[in-house]
Amino acid sequence: MIYTCTIAPSIDYTVYLSDFNSGKLNRTNEVYYYPGGKGINVSRVLKRFGVANTALGFAGGFTGRYIEEYLKNEGVETDFIETTEVTRINVKIKSESETELNGPGPELTVDQLSALTKKVRDMNEGDWFVLAGSLPNAIGQNYFLELATICQAKNIHFVLDTSGPMLKSILTAPVFLVKPNQQELGELFGVDITNLTDVYHYARKLVESGTEHVVVSMGGEGAMLVTKDIALIAKAPQGTVVNTVGAGDSLVSGFIASYAASRDASQAFRFGIASGSATAFRSDLCRKEDVETLLDQIEVHPFEEKDVTG
Ligand SMILES: Nc1ncnc2c1ncn2[C@@H]1O[C@H](COP(=O)(O)OP(=O)(O)OP(=O)(O)O)[C@@H](O)[C@H]1O
Ligand SMILES: O=P(O)(O)OC[C@@]1(O)O[C@H](CO)[C@@H](O)[C@@H]1O
Fold first, then answer.
1. Considering every ligand atom, which ligand is closest to the CA of 161?
2. Where does the record place the Carbohydrate kinase PfkB domain (predicted)?
3. Which of the two ends of the chain, N or C, has the fewest CB atoms closer than 10 A to its terminal CB?
4. ipTM (interface pTM)
């Protein structure tokens, strides 16, 4: 079974307007209320690929209920731990550029955190645990390290898609897949990454410290996959970008869905990129048919440093 976990879900209140003026009254006529948060996006896309999964995390209040109901209607199983706090609403403004206002995550009690630990302990060998989205610093890195350690002991595929100091600390544990974007990879090492040689160099460092698969996403430029045996690069397909929110999460879903079926990292990488781009080219998250249409356009090549250093 695949479990996703979103510590801080959201309703993504997504609005489109042709001209956004900060500091002025802006009226919108195209609005959407998507259930959001990175793990939840991974769950929704997996379901669209026909892959059963359960969304874990913390949710509460009217927004929490909305998210749960929406997911159930889409056929995504949920097993959220209830919070007394109302789950956040994140505002996504789509105009000439994309502006996002993300609220803070919930404050969680020791009992609530223990309830999540128990769910991870109850997972079976070979299961997947996808921890995605922001991880409040207040929880403390030891908690997430403990979850990672349980996954290691039980041979659960641990997938991590987060950013900030917490990413750094959890990466001291063995991780099956980590998907930083180029900027997050730079932040992890306190450097500014501006070229492919550096992307490769720092992804390689993560592999050397124990991560099995490192996928560095680079928005419209595509992505790079580095493992101990291979380094691959692929450009993103061409298309009209509508909404990139959830593109990275869709890449993660595509990689997992394909890898779980084929055990082939190269194939999974290609399917992941097609999934990320298919989401970027539509308002909500991608559908399987969108991804299949883009697959032919994606060429995966071995990455060699000499390709960019001359
Ligand atoms: N402008 C774009 N054109 C085509 N494909 C895109 C574009 N932006 C993103 N993608 C696709 O989605 C993948 C992930 O994108 P990105 O690097 O923006 O992830 P991210 O920063 O984690 O996104 P998010 O946090 O919004 O989910 C890319 O590797 C690419 O395949
Ligand atoms: O505040 P976080 O947890 O870092 O990110 C949350 C979020 O921006 O990420 C998803 C897209 O990846 C959205 O659905 C959601 O609003």
1. 1
2. 10-283
3. C
4. 0.97
